[in-house]
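Might I ask for a little of your time on a matter of protein folding? The record follows directly beneath this note:
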Amino acid sequence: MTVHPFTRFAVRHKTSRPDLLTALALLALGLVLLGLGVNASSAYPVLIPFSQQQLHWWHTIPLVLACLATCVQSRYPLGVFYAITALFIADMVLGFHLVMLIAWANTAYNAARYAAGSLLRWSLVGFGVMTFGLVYLVSGSVSSATNALLQVVLTAVIAVWWGSEVRRGDESTEAERLKSLAARRQEEHEREQLLRRQRADLASQLHDTISSHLSTIALYTAGALDMSPNAQRDRSVLMEVRRSSLDALTDMRELIDVLRTFANVEAEDTGTAPPLAWQDMLRRLRSAGLELSMTAESERHVQAALTRSDSSASLLLAKVLQEALTNALKHGDGTATMHCEATTEGITCTITNPLAPSVAPDAVAPSQLSGGLGLGAMAGAVHDADGIFSAAATRDGVIRHWTVHIELPFTAPPSPSLPQGATSR
């Protein structure tokens, strides 16, 4: 499971829909206030030689630009804050209006929630000083400059406090989520450790039980061989050997059933890995060192069979081919030949590879290539699907070859059972 902890950079991946709704709400509120005749504050001078009534609707221009910037405020909180602050200062030239103060308060809240606190605080201090100096230079009145500064500071304090509280709530929620995830991982780890210990105990019991029965068989047979032939005694020894063999077989089956139960539980938790896609499997096998020879016609038959609608037969074919080719890489000399023929009723595949005298230490296929089926499991799965499976070694002079032959009908019975816990040959 991948964890995405909360950081101030995670907001770059947030959707812009909430920002769009916020921008539309600010634009609608600003237009309503302007439509109702709410004018700019008369306490501050207008730097342009026009009356407030003449400049009334000119406040719409910085308002619209601020709303456009608000559409991306969650992705670029500080950048939008600087842009709307610049628009707020430009709007002061037309007069200090409430609509831009509201838009600026929103971006201050957004910056406090998603951006670094120290940089935002110094930016607000600089903006406050700039506001005080600008109003004082234009009006020459300390009271007007102080009044403007108080409005900006109070608005900023409320917006920053609110954004910081929401930010702390987000971080607390994310911390609780990570804590819960860590606890769940620890619980899963402890459960896996418990299963491993139980398997080790069962394996020890299996070893002791079978060893005891085999020791009994060895003692009886050794004693019978050391003594002179006696039909009645030898019959009693054979009966005891048979009883010990049956007891050993029964105990072995019981313990194997228990081990399979653990394997099935684990498979339910982790799920069975699906086979790789055909082209992906070929690419990985060839990159791992397998030189596979196959005609274009054979590859076309395999592709057609794997893309058929009856997914059970296609899945089984993919698993068997993946395991057979992986075995050719692991146990062969790095070369293999595959020939496939398909009809409307089924597909036949033959995979042949020379057997290496010994498997080199580095001749190991990547773990993700294995299909998870051994020879017995492959044969059982193909037979359950009403197919034919054979695997045998042949000798051609001094070279031994391993040949896997598969005949799989397309009208296979639904959901053939794939043995769990099987291992590769």
The first strand starts at residue 291 and ends at 293. The longest helix spans residues 142-226. Residues 1-271 form one domain.
